[in-house]
């Protein structure tokens, strides 16, 4: 899997650099075009959950995000783009072998309609719409109109129909009551997804009442997870869908819908203020949520922001600032692109290296429900449920009640409660959620997360109060820190044990390698950095062990062969009166983040030994008082 010339060697400093990268990405796809140019079939056997015709339409349509942008800026020669424009003729013709097929309810073709519509809206009329034959224009109008009154997921999909209708209205001159009614209905529904601080959910936000409703259904029927509504806000809320589409709507529909677009501008300001923190100084994004095979689309918010021209607050105040966030992200991907392209130059499926990800909702617990996510260490996705090696529980507390044959982790949880902890007389925000490992709610967990502080920048703390509503002979728990590269640099063999005495003051992050282990802690050191975990020992008859767990290969997004610092507890004699308090301290330093680790201040050894002490007062975490000290 070689790098891609034009992208991997790109400095990403100028407009010409961006154009060169765009052309480098779309050119390899042309060898896989159908005879009529209306479909693209990538020659790999990975299947989709939708039909093959829609899959080949996806291959054709997705590049129109960049083709539309190139046309919008008149930024490339038409000889390169003409085959793609020819595909409009064949793909919309019902008599052509390349016909995309009519749009039905809950159809993948709805998704691809947004890229087709974007290109129509973005391109100057003489470069796209007026180049089409009158027959192709009629066929395209008919095809886009196929979205009208069809059932679709009440989520970001509604934007696909909004843009189809916007293209029909502004480009195709189809100004009908149906177009306007459908557009207004969809926009009103989308606006109901708004949560706070600029964020929208990908659908209606799950209420506490729905939690209870789902539990009552479980008690009556024994069937779990019957309510589909969820609480997830990820890149679909920003760069992949909601905000990305809102910003494009500002650009294309500001004259038609000034009141709504002004509201979207304010939401972009609120959202951007926090979203920029998802990217480190070198441009690395925090991977979490689904569809991470979109890779550098994580920076799509900044690209759309530039198009929309919204006046933004610091640190996005000005075109140069927005450009900086986008280009740093693209530079990061160029530096990490050795394993993201197939030999033919087409992007493969995965993040830093190819991973088999057939359906974006696979591994949903790993993608949305971990305690922490990292731009440096990524996260791990389970490959099965048989044993901890398959579960790969990084940044997760897993439970087993069947002798460690199967494991349950946090999936759905209650709305978070935001409180404060006191750190050396300074208040620090904390987040507490209640969750249940199993649908029968036989065990309940209240987890409080205390983030890193200026005093302890390498540590975050998790406090779990575990209550049982049933009797068990034994309950097993396993909690992981961040997964980290687990091999020696020179020979790629497993990391070897390292005595704490060998971790002297001159040992540098990313240079020292090995595993430092005690009864209640484990620290893993490799070229990627340092990842560790500590806990307090449980009283007898309960037992605590600290281990460097070796998960199955290819479970982590960033590295193929990892180790997870893990604390395991065996809790004996579970009954309804038992309550267990676990305090877990998680340590991590990246050798690669923000352009590379810079040695300053305390040594690695001192940072590991300087853990925060946690004191909890009160009967429960929600009402109690948490303090941290040296």
From TrEMBL:
The record, for InterPro entries, names: DUF2264_C, DUF2264_N, UCP014753
- Describe the location of the DUF2264 domain by residue ranges: 14-355, 359-614
The protein depicted here goes by the name DUF2264 domain-containing protein
Organism, per UniProt?
Fusarium albosuccineum
